Structures are given as structure tokens and as C-alpha cells.
Amino acid sequence: MRNVKILGFATFIEGGRHKALWTIVAFSVLLTLGNIVFTTMFSWDLGKVAIEFGLSAISFSGLLLIFFLGLKIMADDLERGRIYMILSRPVSISEYMVGKFLGLALILLFATVILGISAAISMSFVLAEYPGFVPPGFSWQIYLMALTCQWLGLLVVLAICFFWFSFSSHSFVALIFSACSYLLGQNMETLRYVIEKNPQAGFLTGQEWLVRLVSWIFPNLSLFDKKTVAAYGLAFSWFEFSLIVVYGCSYIGLLLFFSVLLFKRKELAA
Amino acid sequence: MMISSLLCNDLCKSFGKKRTKKQVLKDLSFSVAKEEVFGFLGPNGAGKSTTIKIILGFLRPDSGSIEVSGIGAGLGEYRHLIGYLPELPFFYNHLTALETLMMSGKLSGMKQKEVKDSAAHLLERLTLSHATGQKVGGFSKGMKQRLGLANALIHDPPILILDEPMSGLDPLGRYQVKQLIRDLKAEGKTVFFSSHILSDIEELCDRIAIIHTGELLYSGSVVDFVAENQNLEDNFIDIIRQKDEACCVDA
Ligand SMILES: Nc1ncnc2c1ncn2[C@@H]1O[C@H](COP(=O)(O)OP(=O)(O)OP(=O)(O)O)[C@@H](O)[C@H]1O
Ligand SMILES: [Mg+2]
User: At B58, which CATH number?
Assistant: First the structure.
């Protein structure tokens, strides 16, 4: 546990001082603040647009952080033999993995909080300016819940990256696999919907079981996407929220577990 | 018999699959006694770094066994007994020298205060004090090498495994490292290091092992290896030549 903390902290500092982090965060802060200008170009539903736009900007920059910062730290560890520094000491693979994961998770949390605040500022400005457009059921509580779900979704993507990193010997391959899994996970719901409802879904017609199987293996990332709920002020119960949290956490736990198993079989020839 | 600090028995290792398979180590055996300075020699690509990576468990041998202080690989934890300097030390670029050593020391089970004292002492010793609070990303090659050495020594381990400790260092740095190895020996540590600088090996080592294309050519004391009025360099080149010629005749 002590080792996990040490490694998590080191990863957090390493990432936190990285230029990439601040470039991405600064860019997204501008993007979320640009909300104020941007949304006024719409003449309808300003409030909804503002909320959806803010949350999208946050999730987009989270992905950028995972793919450009998180994966870079992982790849450098493995390919440049930085991991030798750590694993030449009495540290287990699981401690290494969990430490890295928590460090990066903390960076994502940090970024989500900063961007969440800047998005909230611009949103409250738009909502105050155009009170007529405030979505009827809007509440900051649901906004916060949606934000948490998004962060959790990012953590699932991060865990997927860890998995592919342990699986493949080249970080480029890991990157491709991770991106594919992300796209698949993102569109799982749509895919299932199309195949179940559309009799002309091509070769996939009638293959519901296949889709169901795939959707069980790959994470259903759209579950974590609560932008519309927040934007339309739809009902979002604590019960549903807890289910999502449980789903996310168990998925992450499972992925990390398999990552550790795969990693133990890996040869660390940098 | 005294238990040796480091024991390698019939190590075999190959890289690649079937068609591209390349045997890098062939039945390599040697042992390093307690409190001795042991030199590991061989031309480029001989398999020195591979052997060291196997000892630390980064690579798995195809066959053979390893023991460190009587603890068999896979049977118990021995990494806390070892201080390791990689061939190309690579650090977290955004941590400072001190933070790097703090992380390493703590991972080796030391307390905050202990690491701090030890780090200050080692940085001083390796003339890196001026760079204590500087980010490692801005270090020169030689500075990274020095930090790597400090990193290997931070937890005061009884066994040191150094992969080319002199590489990238200026004459002063090399002198300091030589002195360091002498001091470590005087403190009763076991030092196992690979190097290409034969004069250093001759000066420092009690015993040596010479490998070439993964095979052991010699293992024993330096004095025995260096015949009268010949130096280590001539002998080293002779033994490698002989081996290569023998291979050509075979083929
Ligand atoms: N990951 C790897 N995959 C394939 N072959 C490898 C790998 N690592 C090392 N080798 C091969 O193993 C042989 C020994 O390499 P090693 O790094 O152990 O040599 P060395 O004795 O340390 O050489 P040097 O003095 O140049 O550091 C080389 O022929 C190298 O090509
Ligand atoms: Mg080498």
C-alpha cells in the first residue's frame, strides 16, 4: 500500500509538471469560456447548448490527456527502461500498476475539477443572462453527478489503455487497440440499437447475440455520458448513479487485474 | 563453503521465435563471493546486460538458475539486497534529483528522514549537490549516470550490480567512481560490474569473468589471468581471437 502511494504520487508529480497537461487544460478552459460567445450564436435553447458544450469540452480534453500524457508516461516507462528503476526494488507488478493508475486518475480528476469549474462559470453566466432558456429541471447537483460519471468513464478508458499496454509489446499497437476499444465502447449502445431495431443492418442482422456478447466484453462507455441528462435537466436518480459507479469500478478492477496477469508474463527488454 | 553473494548456474537465454531465434547466453555459470569486486567483461553484444537483466528478473532465462545471497530466483525476494545501475539510466524527467532519490529510497523501504540524509550525502559524494533541486530532464548524460549511481546506492545495499558504471563520465567522474568502488569494498559490499575499460578492471577487481557470444571464456582471479609481462588488454584480445578462430574452424 505504501509503494502504491509512493508511485501514485511520483506519477502525479511527473504528469502534473508536464507541459502537455497545461497546454491541454489551458486550451479547454478557453474552450469552455468560449461558451459565452459561442452559445449566443444560437437563438434557441441556449442553456442546453451551453451545458452540453461545456461537458463535451471536458470529456474531450480528458481523452487528450489520456492519449497524449498517460500513454506517453506508460510508453516511456516500458520502452526506455525507466521501469527498471522501479522494479529493481522490492515492488510488485500489481503495486506498480495500481500506483500508476491512481496517479493518472488523480491528474484526470484534477483536470476535470478545473474544467468543471470553468465550464460552470460560463454556464452560469449564460443561464443568468438568458433566464428564459434555463432548462426546466436543471440543477447543479445533476451537473456534478454528470461530471463524476464522465470522470469515471475516463478512468475506464485509462484502464483499457493499461490492459492493451500489458497485452502488446509495442506502445503503438497498444495505442491503436485502445483507440479502437474506445470507439467501439462509445458506439456500443447505438450499434445495439441499430441491430435490434433495424431489419436491414447488413450482415449483422439477426446477430443480436454477437452484439450482446461484444457489448459484454467491451465497456459500454455511453453509460457514462450524461450530457443530455444534465442539459435537459432529466431525472437522474441516486440509484442509477450508484449503479453506474459500481459498474465503472468493477470494470476498472477487472481490467487492472487482467493487466497485472498479462504484465507478469511480459519480458521487460527495453 | 561460504554462501556466495551471486550465483548463476547454466543460464541459457534466447531471443525471438523459431526462425529468427538467436541464442544470446549459452550455459553461463559463474559465482561472485561475498565482499569481492567482480568484473564482468566481454565485447559488445556478448550478453553482459542480458545476464544482468536476468539476475534482476526483468528477463526470464530459458533454463538455469540464479541465487542471490542464498535466495533462489522465484523462491524469495532478494531485490532489496541489490543496488542496480542500468546500462542507460532513465528517470522521470520532471522530478528533481532529490525527488527521484526520495522515491527510490522509499520504494526500498526507507523512512523519509533516512532517505533525505542518505540522498544529501550521496549527491555530495558524486558532485551533484548543485543539481539537487534541478529537474532530471535537464541533466547531461554524465549527470544522469552519476544520479544513477546515487540511485543504486541510496538504500545502502550489500550487493551492487552496476552495468557499465564508468560510461559517459569525465576523467574526474571515473576517478570518483573508482574511489567509490574501493570504498564500497572496504565497507564489505559485494560489487559486480561490467565494463569495457580494462585498466579499471585490472585496478579494481579481485576476480573477473569474460564472456563472448554468450559463452564463458574465463572466470577466476585477475592475477591468474594476467600472465607475466603481459597486461589484461593483450590477454583479453588473445582469448577473444582464439575463440573466434576456433569457431571459424568449426564452421
Ligand atoms: N530485446 C532483445 N531482443 C532481441 N535481441 C536482443 C535483445 N536484447 C539483447 N539482444 C541481443 O543479445 C545480445 C547481447 O546483448 P547485451 O545487451 O546483453 O550485450 P552487452 O554484452 O551488454 O553489450 P554492450 O557491451 O554493447 O553493452 C546482442 O546480440 C543483442 O542483439
Ligand atoms: Mg550492455
Answer: 3.40.50.300
